[in-house]
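Recap quiz, item 2
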Amino acid sequence: MNLDWLDAFLVYGLFSVMMVIGLALLLHLQLGLARIANFGVVGFWGLGMYAFGVMFVQVDWPFGEVWAFLISMAFGTVVAGIAGLVVGWVIADLDTDGVLVGTLGFATCVWILATTEQDLTGGALGMGGLGFPYDIGSVKANETLWLVILTIVVALILYYVSRVHKSPYGRLLIAIGDNEPLARSLGKQSFRTKLWLFAGSSAAMGLLGAMFGVMERFLDIGNLGIDITLAAIVGLVVGSTTRTWGAVVGVLLTVAIFDIVLQSYIPLPQSWYGQAIPNLREMTFGAALILILMFRPYGVLGQMRRDKLMRRMHGG
Amino acid sequence: MDIISDSIVIGLTEQAPLILAAMGFALLYRLTGLINVAYSETITLGAYMGMWLNTTFEINFYTILIPTGILAGLISVGTYFAVFRPAKLRNVGGLEMIIISFGLSVFLRHGLQFIFGYPVRFFDVPPPDTIFVLGVGVSSFRLLAVVSVFILALGLFWFIQKTSYGLQIRALANDEDLAQVSGIRPLAVTVLIWFLAGVAGGLAGAFYGVGSSVAPLLGWRQFLFILLVVLVGGAKNIGGVIIVGAITAVSLTFITLEFGQALYGQLALIVVFIIILKVRGTRAAEAGKV
């Protein structure tokens, strides 16, 4: 396949955008619907990435690479899910302050373990040896196919989120997010609901992390900073925390503009690309959070639309 | 026995800025009910301002502490008027306030990199004197940090418990409406709180900076521990924060000395503190909403 027309930087940029959309969609379930303020997105994402990497690189697999890859990918997802279950159990009955500490603390623990356990993770030196489970020719072709696979995964997440919005389960999440004591008094199992939501969405974050590790082909603790969490939160807040498409629109308006449009299509002085643009990006993201939440708290798309059933019930 | 005395001396002198920063954060948290993530940047700003005053005007470290504290306090008040007060007037919710403070933190952190550049910076100070405490050599800067914490803790305690402003602060934290009808001016008291918290954070930053280096992530790296110390220590009294801060400092040093890896100490403390928070359950509605 001739991919000369396709810029390798664009493929990588689109991969980053797609991955953040996936994370923001999952955060939408946690923060937008159930009001669980997960400030440790990078922890679950990073745990999935490292669990996959360690399993794939360090284990001496007796069978083919494809199976090793798939098992490692599943391992990364499950480990992140189990971590989500544990952290979810800790934070599910805490207030926002406790949730902030629990999730931020978890992300810090992941960073510490990735740094200290050098035999497994490579520590600060990083860990190589990761690769695609296929070879269809050039590096660019392999990366493009991986982007397509990620797009399918994110599309499935989007589909799931839209189904949640229309389901009784979605209404339960919204009810818990709006007024948890009331939901509990009506006999709803708020703790269990939040716990499984958190575990499931954390597992999916781990899967996205593992997929990112494949694209990078090198695991680096520098990836475990706050940037990923910030990008997902900004994308969600700018788009709309409560709307299904909020994460998609928000990430396109923020991460895509900075990581693709600004860096690829706007002629800027070469010296800016090293640190000025990334700094400007983060400053803009920080300012966007402040301004959006103060002046348009429901984001660009606005308040949640009630589904057909609710509109019929309430005559809206 | 050696390791215990070493842990106490090294821990308290190295981590005194943590206790100082936690005191400032606790003051703000108790009286506003806000987890102000941007407080981490008050610490970083304190370190940068101290370094800037020290290196640009060649002022010695001890002298720069006063303008550094005042500047940090003023910037803290500035963030209140520029961001938090307008947000409060717009009835922004508690969770959204935390996200706003997170946004402000990111904005300030990266703004600092624009102003001061990207490399790690250092104070221009002569090698500090070494003073022996329980047989452990401690630099004069670190000993000054401990003394500052002690003085500030006493000062804050006296201020909050014994002065009329302190009474107003406590009244405002307990019931804003009642305080208002009693003739207390909430704005003046709130500004005072933000200023004092900023002073404590800025001084902590200067002590951190002179003890090692000045970098954009300086405050952020301490933030989780400050938050844990305040939540576990209990925002209701400064004494609890100081005790938990001191225990944290000594424990971190003990684990570092015992296992040769500071990060393991941090890991253990994060886990222990989170378990404590879990066991203790949801925080009672003890904080006012300023």
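The first helix of chain B runs from residue 2 to 14.
Residues 283-290 of chain B have pLDDT under 50 and may be disordered.
End of item.
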